[in-house]
Specification:
The protein has 118 residues and is of the alpha+beta class. The chain has one domain (4-113): Aminopeptidase, CATH 3.40.630.30. It has 3 helices and 5 strands; from the N terminus they run βααβββαβ. The protein has helices spanning 13-19, 27-40, 85-103; strands at 4-7, 43-48, 51-61, 68-76, 110-113. A 5-stranded mixed β-sheet has the order 1-2-3-4-5, with helices on both faces. α3 (85-103) links the parallel β4 (68-76) and β5 (110-113). It is globular and about 40 Å long. It starts with a strand and ends in a 5-residue tail after the last strand.
């Protein structure tokens, strides 16, 4: 079975938060950050054999007339990198972003992604 890209839903919460277990100090901390993304459908997930192997979370920025969105988080499991999964997550999220702005009679104009070193 290939990789499937779809929105992360409330039914996926346990699997989603398990993936962030080592990133946040507690499940509650991760939930407090990501719940608004889950509730609004702003998280795309990559699934392979019923396993979560990648995530992209985004959010609208500023007023909708500006059409600005930000990619908050993107990752793909190390073993799955270099297979185009990140690009598929981006394509899926851009479709979500466009639909979001269309609901407000606007359009997506720009997507931001900030990076930083560790």
């Amino acid at each position: 079975m290939g990789v499937q890209i779809r929105c992360i839903t409330c039914q996926d919460k346990d699997v989603f938060f398990e993936a962030y277990r080592g990133v946040y100090s507690s499940k509650e901390e991760a939930e407090s950050f990501y719940c608004r993304f889950l509730d609004n459908g702003w998280i795309s997930g990559a699934w392979k054999d019923h396993e979560l192997i990648g995530v992209l979370a985004w959010a609208p920025r500023e007023t909708v007339k500006n059409g600005l969105a930000e990619i908050i988080d993107i990752w793909v499991d190390v073993e799955e990198r270099g297979k185009g999964i990140g690009g598929k997550l981006i394509d899926h999220a851009i479709g979500q972003m466009k639909r979001y702005y269309q609901r407000f009679k606007s359009k997506l104009r720009r997507v931001m992604l900030f990076t930083g070193g560790h």
